[in-house]
Amino acid sequence: REPCPYREGFTSQGLDLYEISSCNEFRTCYLPPMPREFKTTTDITDWAQSLDDRWPERRDIMQHISEQLLRVPFLRPNIVELCCGPGMLAEFLLRESPRIFYRGIDASHSLITFSSERLSPFGNRGVLYTADLNEDLWLEFCPDPIHAVISMQSLHDLGDESAVERIYRLTHKV
User: Fold this and answer.
1) Is the pLDDT of residue 66 over 80?
2) CB within 8 Å of 156: residues ≥ 6 apart
3) Closest to 6 in 3D by CA, of 42, 14, 55, 18
C-alpha cells in the first residue's frame, strides 16, 4: 500500500479510495472518509487558516459570492450552504448582507459546534445543521423557498463525480 502523495500520513490501509486531480494529472490517492472531526478549537482554527494559506484566492471568491447574493431580488433571501465547514463564508456573508437568512449543513459535528459559536452574533439569521449530504435527510433542513445554494471547495469530499452530480440534481429540485 502506497502513502497518499497529497496528504501526509495517510495510506490506503482501511481508507476509501478516491481519484483526485492535482496539476492536471489524475492519480489514485487514499483519503480518509469524510467528515473531518477535530478534537480542539485550535485544530479547527489551524485547519481553517491552512485553507486560506493554500488558496489565498478564497477571499476573492467569498467576495464574489457575496456580490452575487446581493443581487438576489428578494427582501429576505434564504441561502443554503452545503459543506459549510468552520463557518468562514457564513460569517462573511451574514456580516456583508444583513438581509440574508443563512442555513449551513455539514456532516462534521465538531465543525458545526465551532461554527455555531462563530455565528451566534447573527441570532436566528444563521442556523446550522449536522447532516450527511450523501443521505437525503439534509433536504428536510432546507427552508422553503430557497433562493440560492452555495458551496466552496468541499463537494469533492462527498465522493466521486457521481456523488457530486447527485447533489446538484437534488439541489436543483429544491
Assistant:
1) yes
2) 20, 164
3) 18
Say whether pTM exceeds 0.85: no
A 10 A CB-CB count for 67 gives 11
Length of the chain: 174
pLDDT tens by residue, 12-22: 333 333 333 33
Question: What digits encode the pLDDT tens for the residues 70-122?
Answer: 899 999 999 999 999 999 999 999 999 999 999 999 989 999 999 999 999 99
